[in-house]
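Notes to self after the Tuesday call (sharing in case useful).
The group wants a holo model before anyone commits to mutagenesis around the pocket. I volunteered. Ligand is cytidine-5'-monophosphate. Logging inputs and output together so the record is complete.
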Amino acid sequence: MVAGARINDFMDGARAAAEEILENISGGRKVLVVSHMDADGISAAGIIGKALLRAEADFCIRIERWMDERTIGEALHYSGGEALLIFTDMGSGYLDILRVRAGDRRVIVLDHHQPIGTPSESFMQVNPHLFGIDGSRDISSAGISYLVAKFMGKDNVDLAYLAVVGALGDLQDKYEGRALGGVNEIIVKDAVETGYLSVETDLLFFGRETRPIHKALAYTTSPYIPGISGEEDKSLAFLSGLNIELKRNDRWRALRDLSQDEKRRLFSALHDYLVSKGFRSEVAMSLLGTVYILAKEEPWTPLRDAREFALLLNATGRMGTTGLGVAICMGDRGRSYEDALRVLENYRQIITKYLRWLNENPERIEEWENIYVLHGEKDIDEKAISTISTIISMSLPRVEKPLIAYSLVSDEGTIKISARTTDSTARMGLNLGEIIRIAAERCSGIGGGHDIAAGAQVPYNQRNLFLKYVNSLVGEYMARIKKDGG
Ligand code: C5P
Ligand code: C5P
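Result:
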């Protein structure tokens, strides 16, 4: 945890939010929860939703792509001036817009984005950054929501596993051996103690306990293995060349059936393969690390591995079926889950398709003086650009150059930007959230996020200006970091 973190004050903030939510419920007020559409946002909504259900609240959940005037306007409209408004995984980055639109309306914000602007006195904001806690790595919005839920009722401790899913969805596994750390560690402990989670160290294949190895490898997307992730036949061909017995007595073997020596050979082959595809060794090394197993989920399902669970939620969010993700978080393992499996399959295919397309069109990724630019234009769906940006950023040779990827949002005449840098560059002091926000605001857009991952929406005709601003701002930051000996 960052030195000077005021964890007790942060916890007091979560307790105060819980008390206020409970007071509102007992006063008969309805509640509207508005959350972000990625895995962290959906798990945050699921956690708060479940806690509200248990507290017998009358509530509604909305999931939004991002925070802007429209999102706030609709939230105010649907809450009818009456309901308690809770924003999860969004809000802190846009306090000024929220203040102007919401006026002196009481709003609770549970968010881990860097706070920007001046909150109204009537906002209650539970945000780790306000207490010296690193919101990019040490706790996600699902984690904050979980802490609030736990103060709402002790029985909500059984939701800790969802906060682990949210943190992994936001790639917070930045501690040694791809472990969660900081406040997330407290949440992991709760999830283990309630019997929902077990933690091991192994190769990070999705379905390592149960799926045939070639399937587990093909299902693995964290890290994404180009030419293998999403492609079962190619995964099988890759493994067949390694002299590892894939079937024994006519039964497929799972990763857990392999000897240590077989696992070592498999890891080393995958490591070399990723490096040959341009990935940095540290990305290849990240195939080995801390596995978070959701012990109460069925062994064969994508819900068993917390990272794969997060992928499923992300898929429902990006494919416009957020209700399925929220329902799964609230416990549905029937219809919504069945539907979500199809959505996940579809999502995997779309991501694989775009990565292949980029492979065939390498000119779409340009190296500029200080950044890489991925011109998704109209060819990469705006809903996929976030995931594509995350994956591509891992295979770029120059770590100090962030990736700025964008796609056209055709019905709005804007571009959606997804920017990513590496953990080491962010820790040196490159704050992508700030850079993207400043450049977006200069180009009549809005943006923000974390030091390591940020996003924006900017008018299409301003895209070149925006990219130039970002390029020069990154240059200025890097020069300052070098001067300060970073
Ligand atoms: O809005 P929110 O904070 O939940 O989203 C963060 C986003 O940034 C996620 O989509 C996550 O996958 C992405 N991310 C990333 N690389 C990191 C950290 C976060 O792509 N190192
Ligand atoms: O959409 P994407 O996953 O690229 O977003 C990266 C991060 O930037 C997320 O945490 C997201 O919430 C944040 N973001 C933001 N403002 C925007 C767009 C994205 O704060 N306009």
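Two things stood out.
Residues 3 and 132 are 8 Å apart (CA to CA).
The chain is about 45% helix and 15% strand.
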